[in-house]
Amino acid sequence: MTLPDTKVVRTTFFINAIAALFAAGLLAVVGYQEYTLADLRSQIAQLDEQIGRDKKPSDDAVALFAKFQAEEKKIQELETFLGGNKLVVSKFLNRLGKSVPAKISITTMEYTGVGVNLRGLVVGTPEQASGMVSSYEKQLKADDEIGKRFDQIALTNLSRDPQDGRLSFEITLRSSQVKKETKKP
User: Fold this and answer.
1) What is the per-residue DSSP string for 100-115?
2) Higher pLDDT, 102 or 44
3) Of 5, 94, 110, 185, which cross-links 117 as Cys (Cβ 3.0–4.6 Å)?
4) How far apart are CA 103 and CA 132, in angstroms?
5) Rounded to whole angstroms, how far apart are CA atoms 119 and 39?
6) Mind listing the UniProt keywords for this protein, alphabetically (predicted)?
């Protein structure tokens, strides 16, 4: 009996070894992919739990946002309806407060629906006080915000208070746009 040729044995051995290494490599790749898939499944399960926990607060927030949008829509409709004729009291008071001269004090402000009546007192001699009130009236007419807002700004009353010697005044601010809006049905 003769021994087989070593080249054939060696070739068969190498082919089997390469096939075994390829199979082992393929097994390692499949194993790694399975490990990655298992890790992804556990992350998905954790995230599903988190979504389940956060669903109710999220739904509440969405419902609140829907309410907010409904209220915002109402406000926008009101702004559209009022247009440029609305009187924002806080801005008006701020502007009015900045415009008042030193010796003039406003004691009463009355909104009448068609305008605003300002009543106040002035300290000084009769000539000085009437001059200050008259210049204040002109200042209100020339004011960027107040003068543009009201069509008619007039000094309607000026009288001396005998008890304390101060001059009391009344300035009426009227807007014809507001008056027209209130007459519409």
Assistant:
1) --TTEEEEEEEE-SSE
2) 44
3) 110
4) 8
5) 78
6) Membrane, Transmembrane, Transmembrane helix
